[in-house]
Amino acid sequence: MLDLYHAVSAKGDEGNGMGNWVGDGLTGHVSHAALPTLNTYTAPLGTVVSEADTVMSFVNLVEQERDLLQPRPYWKEFRFDLTPLPQGETVTAAEFRIYKTLTMGQRANRSLHISVYEIQRENKHREPELVLLDMQSVPAGQEGWLAFDVTSASNRWLLHPRSNLGIRLYVETEEDRSLSAGWVGLVGRRGPRSKQPFMVTFFRASQAPCRPPRAVKPNPHKKKPKYDLPLPSIHDHSHVNSGRQACKRHELYVSFSDLGWKDWVLAPTGYSAFYCDGECLYPLGSCMNATNHAMIQLVVHLLKPDEVPKACCAPTKLSPISVLFYDDNNNVILKKHRNMVVKTCGCL
Predict the structure, then answer these.
(1) Domain named TGF-beta family profile: which ranges (predicted)?
(2) Radius of gyration of the chain, Cα coordinates, nearest whole angstrom
(3) Are 39 and 178 in the same domain?
Protein backbone atom coordinates (compact mmCIF):
# COMPACT_ATOMS: atom_id res chain seq x y z
CA MET A 1 0.00 0.00 0.00
CA LEU A 2 2.91 2.35 0.65
CA ASP A 3 4.14 1.62 -2.88
CA LEU A 4 0.70 2.56 -4.18
CA TYR A 5 0.79 5.80 -2.19
CA HIS A 6 4.16 6.73 -3.72
CA ALA A 7 2.83 5.89 -7.20
CA VAL A 8 -0.21 8.09 -6.62
CA SER A 9 1.91 10.93 -5.24
CA ALA A 10 4.21 10.76 -8.26
CA LYS A 11 1.18 11.12 -10.54
CA GLY A 12 -0.31 13.94 -8.48
CA ASP A 13 0.98 16.65 -10.78
CA GLU A 14 -0.36 14.85 -13.86
CA GLY A 15 -3.89 14.26 -12.57
CA ASN A 16 -6.03 13.36 -9.60
CA GLY A 17 -6.30 9.65 -10.28
CA MET A 18 -4.90 6.76 -8.30
CA GLY A 19 -2.74 5.55 -11.17
CA ASN A 20 -1.40 2.07 -11.97
CA TRP A 21 0.63 0.13 -9.47
CA VAL A 22 2.51 -3.04 -8.68
CA GLY A 23 3.14 -3.11 -4.92
CA ASP A 24 4.36 -5.53 -2.29
CA GLY A 25 1.50 -5.63 0.18
CA LEU A 26 1.02 -3.83 3.45
CA THR A 27 4.61 -2.70 4.02
CA GLY A 28 6.87 -0.06 2.59
CA HIS A 29 9.45 -2.52 1.21
CA VAL A 30 9.60 -2.55 -2.59
CA SER A 31 9.81 -6.04 -3.99
CA HIS A 32 12.03 -5.87 -7.07
CA ALA A 33 11.28 -9.52 -7.77
CA ALA A 34 7.65 -8.63 -8.52
CA LEU A 35 8.31 -8.25 -12.22
CA PRO A 36 5.47 -7.37 -14.61
CA THR A 37 6.29 -10.53 -16.58
CA LEU A 38 5.10 -12.56 -13.60
CA ASN A 39 1.62 -11.12 -14.01
CA THR A 40 -0.59 -12.10 -16.93
CA TYR A 41 -3.32 -9.96 -15.39
CA THR A 42 -2.69 -6.21 -15.64
CA ALA A 43 -3.73 -4.84 -12.27
CA PRO A 44 -6.10 -3.02 -12.46
CA LEU A 45 -7.02 -1.01 -15.55
CA GLY A 46 -5.71 2.54 -15.34
CA THR A 47 -8.99 4.08 -16.47
CA VAL A 48 -10.78 2.24 -13.66
CA VAL A 49 -8.27 3.00 -10.91
CA SER A 50 -7.96 6.64 -11.95
CA GLU A 51 -11.58 7.12 -10.83
CA ALA A 52 -10.92 5.70 -7.35
CA ASP A 53 -11.19 7.97 -4.31
CA THR A 54 -10.38 5.36 -1.66
CA VAL A 55 -8.22 2.22 -1.60
CA MET A 56 -8.64 -0.25 1.28
CA SER A 57 -6.56 -3.33 2.08
CA PHE A 58 -7.95 -6.32 4.00
CA VAL A 59 -5.87 -8.98 5.74
CA ASN A 60 -6.70 -12.65 5.46
CA LEU A 61 -8.76 -13.71 8.50
CA VAL A 62 -9.51 -17.38 7.82
CA GLU A 63 -7.32 -19.85 5.98
CA GLN A 64 -8.13 -23.49 5.30
CA GLU A 65 -6.50 -25.95 2.95
CA ARG A 66 -6.44 -29.47 1.63
CA ASP A 67 -2.73 -30.29 1.50
CA LEU A 68 -0.41 -33.21 0.74
CA LEU A 69 -1.76 -35.31 3.62
CA GLN A 70 -5.24 -35.37 2.04
CA PRO A 71 -6.61 -36.65 -1.27
CA ARG A 72 -6.42 -34.52 -4.41
CA PRO A 73 -7.40 -32.01 -5.66
CA TYR A 74 -5.49 -29.75 -3.30
CA TRP A 75 -6.78 -26.24 -2.58
CA LYS A 76 -6.40 -23.29 -0.24
CA GLU A 77 -9.22 -21.03 1.00
CA PHE A 78 -9.07 -17.39 2.14
CA ARG A 79 -11.65 -15.15 3.72
CA PHE A 80 -11.71 -11.37 4.19
CA ASP A 81 -13.97 -9.19 6.33
CA LEU A 82 -15.33 -6.44 4.09
CA THR A 83 -17.85 -5.05 6.58
CA PRO A 84 -15.91 -1.79 7.17
CA LEU A 85 -16.49 -0.80 3.55
CA PRO A 86 -17.13 2.96 3.23
CA GLN A 87 -20.75 4.02 2.93
CA GLY A 88 -21.96 5.74 -0.23
CA GLU A 89 -19.11 4.43 -2.38
CA THR A 90 -19.02 1.94 -5.24
CA VAL A 91 -16.33 -0.60 -6.05
CA THR A 92 -14.33 0.16 -9.20
CA ALA A 93 -11.87 -2.75 -8.86
CA ALA A 94 -10.75 -5.38 -6.36
CA GLU A 95 -7.73 -7.68 -6.25
CA PHE A 96 -6.59 -10.71 -4.30
CA ARG A 97 -2.80 -10.67 -3.93
CA ILE A 98 -0.60 -13.59 -2.91
CA TYR A 99 3.18 -13.91 -2.86
CA LYS A 100 5.03 -16.72 -4.64
CA THR A 101 8.48 -17.64 -3.34
CA LEU A 102 11.20 -19.69 -5.02
CA THR A 103 10.99 -23.36 -4.11
CA MET A 104 13.60 -26.10 -4.45
CA GLY A 105 13.17 -29.17 -6.60
CA GLN A 106 10.88 -27.66 -9.25
CA ARG A 107 11.60 -27.29 -12.94
CA ALA A 108 11.99 -23.56 -13.49
CA ASN A 109 10.57 -23.67 -17.01
CA ARG A 110 7.40 -25.49 -15.97
CA SER A 111 4.17 -23.50 -16.06
CA LEU A 112 1.76 -23.52 -13.15
CA HIS A 113 -1.92 -22.78 -13.71
CA ILE A 114 -3.33 -20.92 -10.69
CA SER A 115 -7.07 -20.30 -10.55
CA VAL A 116 -9.15 -18.40 -8.00
CA TYR A 117 -12.85 -19.15 -7.38
CA GLU A 118 -15.56 -17.49 -5.34
CA ILE A 119 -17.29 -19.85 -2.91
CA GLN A 120 -20.98 -19.18 -3.53
CA ARG A 121 -22.62 -21.96 -1.56
CA GLU A 122 -21.32 -24.46 0.97
CA ASN A 123 -22.65 -28.03 1.15
CA LYS A 124 -22.26 -30.43 4.08
CA HIS A 125 -21.53 -33.66 2.24
CA ARG A 126 -20.18 -32.48 -1.09
CA GLU A 127 -18.00 -29.82 -2.65
CA PRO A 128 -19.22 -26.21 -2.49
CA GLU A 129 -20.50 -24.34 -5.52
CA LEU A 130 -17.64 -22.36 -7.08
CA VAL A 131 -17.52 -19.56 -9.67
CA LEU A 132 -14.26 -18.82 -11.49
CA LEU A 133 -12.97 -15.28 -10.85
CA ASP A 134 -9.52 -15.25 -12.46
CA MET A 135 -6.78 -17.59 -13.67
CA GLN A 136 -3.06 -17.17 -14.43
CA SER A 137 -0.21 -19.20 -15.89
CA VAL A 138 2.96 -18.60 -13.88
CA PRO A 139 6.54 -19.83 -14.49
CA ALA A 140 7.45 -22.14 -11.61
CA GLY A 141 10.94 -20.65 -11.33
CA GLN A 142 9.93 -17.02 -10.70
CA GLU A 143 9.19 -15.12 -7.52
CA GLY A 144 6.92 -12.16 -6.80
CA TRP A 145 3.39 -10.96 -6.15
CA LEU A 146 0.44 -12.38 -8.09
CA ALA A 147 -2.73 -10.31 -8.50
CA PHE A 148 -6.13 -11.84 -9.26
CA ASP A 149 -9.23 -9.88 -10.27
CA VAL A 150 -11.99 -10.45 -7.69
CA THR A 151 -14.11 -7.39 -8.50
CA SER A 152 -17.31 -9.33 -9.19
CA ALA A 153 -17.07 -11.15 -5.85
CA SER A 154 -16.41 -7.97 -3.85
CA ASN A 155 -19.41 -6.29 -5.47
CA ARG A 156 -21.59 -9.24 -4.47
CA TRP A 157 -20.24 -9.19 -0.90
CA LEU A 158 -20.87 -5.45 -0.72
CA LEU A 159 -24.55 -5.91 -1.64
CA HIS A 160 -25.01 -9.16 0.34
CA PRO A 161 -22.48 -9.42 3.21
CA ARG A 162 -23.77 -12.85 4.28
CA SER A 163 -22.81 -14.28 0.90
CA ASN A 164 -19.12 -13.71 1.70
CA LEU A 165 -17.87 -17.29 2.02
CA GLY A 166 -14.38 -16.47 0.81
CA ILE A 167 -12.34 -17.59 -2.18
CA ARG A 168 -10.63 -20.86 -3.06
CA LEU A 169 -7.31 -21.23 -4.91
CA TYR A 170 -6.18 -24.22 -6.99
CA VAL A 171 -2.76 -24.96 -8.52
CA GLU A 172 -2.33 -27.36 -11.43
CA THR A 173 0.42 -28.34 -13.85
CA GLU A 174 0.08 -28.29 -17.62
CA GLU A 175 -0.86 -31.97 -17.31
CA ASP A 176 -3.79 -31.04 -15.01
CA ARG A 177 -2.06 -32.52 -11.97
CA SER A 178 -3.13 -30.87 -8.71
CA LEU A 179 -0.36 -29.37 -6.55
CA SER A 180 -0.33 -28.03 -3.01
CA ALA A 181 -0.22 -24.21 -2.86
CA GLY A 182 2.46 -24.31 -0.16
CA TRP A 183 4.59 -26.78 -2.12
CA VAL A 184 4.83 -24.43 -5.12
CA GLY A 185 5.80 -21.50 -2.88
CA LEU A 186 2.51 -19.60 -2.36
CA VAL A 187 2.77 -17.86 1.02
CA GLY A 188 -0.10 -18.14 3.52
CA ARG A 189 -0.78 -16.83 7.03
CA ARG A 190 2.26 -18.62 8.46
CA GLY A 191 4.60 -16.66 6.19
CA PRO A 192 6.35 -13.37 6.98
CA ARG A 193 4.01 -10.43 7.62
CA SER A 194 5.31 -8.51 4.60
CA LYS A 195 4.35 -11.39 2.28
CA GLN A 196 1.03 -12.53 3.65
CA PRO A 197 -1.96 -12.65 1.26
CA PHE A 198 -4.33 -9.70 1.27
CA MET A 199 -7.15 -8.12 -0.67
CA VAL A 200 -7.18 -4.55 -1.97
CA THR A 201 -10.34 -2.77 -3.08
CA PHE A 202 -10.72 0.49 -5.01
CA PHE A 203 -13.75 2.71 -4.33
CA ARG A 204 -15.29 5.78 -5.88
CA ALA A 205 -17.73 8.13 -4.18
CA SER A 206 -21.25 7.75 -5.59
CA GLN A 207 -22.47 10.93 -7.21
CA ALA A 208 -26.01 11.82 -8.26
CA PRO A 209 -26.23 12.50 -11.97
CA CYS A 210 -26.32 16.20 -12.81
CA ARG A 211 -29.00 17.54 -15.12
CA PRO A 212 -27.34 19.25 -18.09
CA PRO A 213 -28.16 22.94 -18.55
CA ARG A 214 -30.49 23.96 -21.37
CA ALA A 215 -28.52 27.07 -22.26
CA VAL A 216 -26.47 27.12 -25.43
CA LYS A 217 -22.82 26.29 -24.75
CA PRO A 218 -20.52 29.32 -25.01
CA ASN A 219 -17.67 29.45 -27.46
CA PRO A 220 -14.80 27.54 -25.73
CA HIS A 221 -12.20 29.70 -27.50
CA LYS A 222 -13.63 32.94 -26.07
CA LYS A 223 -12.33 33.59 -22.57
CA LYS A 224 -15.03 35.14 -20.44
CA PRO A 225 -13.97 37.36 -17.52
CA LYS A 226 -14.91 36.48 -13.96
CA TYR A 227 -17.27 39.46 -13.84
CA ASP A 228 -18.81 41.33 -16.74
CA LEU A 229 -20.64 44.26 -15.11
CA PRO A 230 -19.62 47.88 -15.83
CA LEU A 231 -17.56 49.50 -13.10
CA PRO A 232 -19.33 52.46 -11.48
CA SER A 233 -17.55 55.72 -10.83
CA ILE A 234 -16.50 56.02 -7.19
CA HIS A 235 -15.59 59.60 -6.34
CA ASP A 236 -14.59 58.90 -2.75
CA HIS A 237 -11.37 56.87 -2.87
CA SER A 238 -10.63 57.14 0.84
CA HIS A 239 -11.62 53.49 1.36
CA VAL A 240 -10.01 52.11 -1.79
CA ASN A 241 -6.50 51.35 -0.57
CA SER A 242 -5.88 50.68 3.09
CA GLY A 243 -2.18 49.90 2.65
CA ARG A 244 -2.64 46.18 3.17
CA GLN A 245 -1.41 43.58 0.68
CA ALA A 246 -3.80 42.48 -2.05
CA CYS A 247 -5.53 39.10 -1.88
CA LYS A 248 -3.12 36.29 -2.73
CA ARG A 249 -1.95 32.79 -1.76
CA HIS A 250 0.43 32.35 1.17
CA GLU A 251 2.63 29.46 2.33
CA LEU A 252 1.25 27.08 4.98
CA TYR A 253 2.81 23.69 5.79
CA VAL A 254 0.68 21.32 7.88
CA SER A 255 2.57 18.71 9.93
CA PHE A 256 0.46 15.68 10.91
CA SER A 257 2.80 15.15 13.86
CA ASP A 258 1.94 18.62 15.21
CA LEU A 259 -1.75 17.69 14.92
CA GLY A 260 -1.17 14.51 16.95
CA TRP A 261 -1.94 12.24 13.99
CA LYS A 262 1.44 10.50 13.53
CA ASP A 263 0.24 7.27 15.18
CA TRP A 264 -2.39 6.57 12.53
CA VAL A 265 -1.27 8.51 9.44
CA LEU A 266 1.42 6.50 7.61
CA ALA A 267 2.09 8.93 4.77
CA PRO A 268 2.69 11.73 4.11
CA THR A 269 4.20 13.27 7.25
CA GLY A 270 2.67 16.60 6.21
CA TYR A 271 1.80 18.70 3.18
CA SER A 272 1.72 22.25 1.82
CA ALA A 273 -1.87 23.40 2.29
CA PHE A 274 -1.42 27.16 1.60
CA TYR A 275 -4.01 29.77 2.62
CA CYS A 276 -5.57 32.96 1.24
CA ASP A 277 -5.21 36.37 2.81
CA GLY A 278 -5.16 40.03 1.79
CA GLU A 279 -7.41 42.90 0.81
CA CYS A 280 -9.95 42.85 -1.99
CA LEU A 281 -9.14 46.32 -3.32
CA TYR A 282 -11.26 48.46 -5.62
CA PRO A 283 -11.18 48.24 -8.58
CA LEU A 284 -10.84 44.45 -8.67
CA GLY A 285 -8.26 43.47 -11.26
CA SER A 286 -8.28 40.25 -13.29
CA CYS A 287 -5.69 38.75 -10.95
CA MET A 288 -8.26 38.89 -8.13
CA ASN A 289 -10.40 36.12 -9.70
CA ALA A 290 -13.42 38.09 -8.48
CA THR A 291 -17.08 37.26 -9.10
CA ASN A 292 -19.83 39.69 -10.08
CA HIS A 293 -21.19 39.43 -6.56
CA ALA A 294 -17.79 40.31 -5.04
CA MET A 295 -17.53 43.37 -7.25
CA ILE A 296 -21.05 44.58 -6.34
CA GLN A 297 -20.45 43.90 -2.63
CA LEU A 298 -17.22 45.87 -2.71
CA VAL A 299 -18.90 48.84 -4.45
CA VAL A 300 -21.75 48.86 -1.91
CA HIS A 301 -19.18 48.63 0.88
CA LEU A 302 -17.48 51.77 -0.42
CA LEU A 303 -20.85 53.55 -0.36
CA LYS A 304 -22.01 52.09 2.98
CA PRO A 305 -18.90 50.89 4.87
CA ASP A 306 -20.75 50.57 8.17
CA GLU A 307 -23.47 48.35 6.76
CA VAL A 308 -21.80 46.02 4.24
CA PRO A 309 -18.42 44.30 4.72
CA LYS A 310 -15.80 43.99 2.01
CA ALA A 311 -15.56 41.01 -0.29
CA CYS A 312 -13.53 38.18 1.26
CA CYS A 313 -10.23 36.75 0.11
CA ALA A 314 -10.83 32.99 -0.18
CA PRO A 315 -9.76 29.90 -2.18
CA THR A 316 -11.23 29.76 -5.68
CA LYS A 317 -9.58 26.49 -6.69
CA LEU A 318 -8.47 23.56 -4.53
CA SER A 319 -6.85 20.20 -5.26
CA PRO A 320 -6.83 16.85 -3.42
CA ILE A 321 -4.08 14.94 -1.66
CA SER A 322 -3.78 11.20 -0.99
CA VAL A 323 -3.31 10.03 2.61
CA LEU A 324 -2.31 6.53 3.75
CA PHE A 325 -3.65 5.69 7.21
CA TYR A 326 -5.02 3.04 9.58
CA ASP A 327 -8.76 2.92 10.24
CA ASP A 328 -10.40 1.82 13.52
CA ASN A 329 -10.17 -1.84 12.45
CA ASN A 330 -6.42 -1.61 11.66
CA ASN A 331 -7.06 -1.83 7.93
CA VAL A 332 -4.62 0.17 5.82
CA ILE A 333 -6.49 2.72 3.69
CA LEU A 334 -5.33 5.02 0.93
CA LYS A 335 -7.86 7.81 0.48
CA LYS A 336 -7.96 10.78 -1.86
CA HIS A 337 -9.17 13.72 0.25
CA ARG A 338 -10.65 16.46 -1.88
CA ASN A 339 -10.18 20.23 -1.47
CA MET A 340 -7.06 20.02 0.69
CA VAL A 341 -4.59 22.27 -1.16
CA VAL A 342 -5.26 25.88 -2.18
CA LYS A 343 -4.33 26.37 -5.83
CA THR A 344 -5.64 29.90 -6.43
CA CYS A 345 -7.18 32.68 -4.36
CA GLY A 346 -9.77 35.31 -5.25
CA CYS A 347 -12.34 37.76 -3.96
CA LEU A 348 -15.72 36.21 -3.17
Answers:
(1) 211-348
(2) 28
(3) yes
Q: Please check whether residues 184 and 269 belong to one and the same domain.
A: no
Q: Report d(CA 189, CA 168) in Å as an integer.
A: 15
Which amino acid, one-letter code, is at 224?
K
Looking at per-residue pLDDT, the higher value among 15 and 271 belongs to 271
Query: How many helices (DSSP H) and strands (DSSP E) are in the chain?
Result: 4, 17
Distance CA 227, CA 216 (A): 19
Beta carbons within 8 Å of 299's beta carbon, 6+ residues apart:
232, 234, 282
Is residue 131 within 8 A of residue 120, CB to CB? The reply is yes
Residue 254: which CATH number?
A: 2.10.90.10
91: domain range?
2-205
In degrees and rounded to multiples of 5, residue 189 shows phi and psi of: -65, -25
Domain CATH code at residue 146: 2.60.310.10
The phi and psi torsions of 109 (rounded to 5 degrees) equal -90, 0
Q: Which amino acid is at 199?
A: M
Q: Which amino acid is at 310?
A: K
The reply to whether 212 falls in a domain is: no
Whole-model pTM: value is: 0.63
> Mean pLDDT across the stretch 274-300?
79
Region of 144 (left: φ > 0; alpha: ψ -120 to 50; beta: rest) is left
Nearest to 170 by CA among 40, 72, 95, 70: 72
Residue 9 shares a structural domain with residue 88: yes
**The total number of structural domains that make up the chain:** 2
Q: How far apart are CA 146 and CA 316, in angstroms?
A: 44
Tens of pLDDT, residue by residue over 247-265, are 899 999 999 999 999 888 9
pLDDT in tens, 155-199: 888 888 888 899 999 999 888 888 888 888 898 888 888 888 999
